[in-house]
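Repro:
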Amino acid sequence: MFRRTFWFTTGVAAGVWATTKVNRKLKQLTPENLAATAANKAIETGHRLKDRAVGFALDVRDGMAQREAELGDALGLNAPVDHELPAPRQYAAIENRTKPKTYVVDGTTYSYNRNEDH
């Protein structure tokens, strides 16, 4: 009698366990639950991709800043600035314009200024 009771109880427990497992799996496979699970996984994946993209963008920005500093040093752009103005340039090909050149023909004085009215 004890054997029969043991096996009956074991069978009932296995049946309850199997029924519970099957019902849980069936609830997981309903269209609403599948849609919710897919949406949650898509949101999680989106967050992971966003975090990676932001990390990548920050790495690229740091690399750009480092490379710009290297190029600035190589080209002398980061050198200290001399705030003194350079001396005015002297142009050898341009004449001194303080007095216009003139020439005299038959007692009349003419200038070389081409901009004067004729």
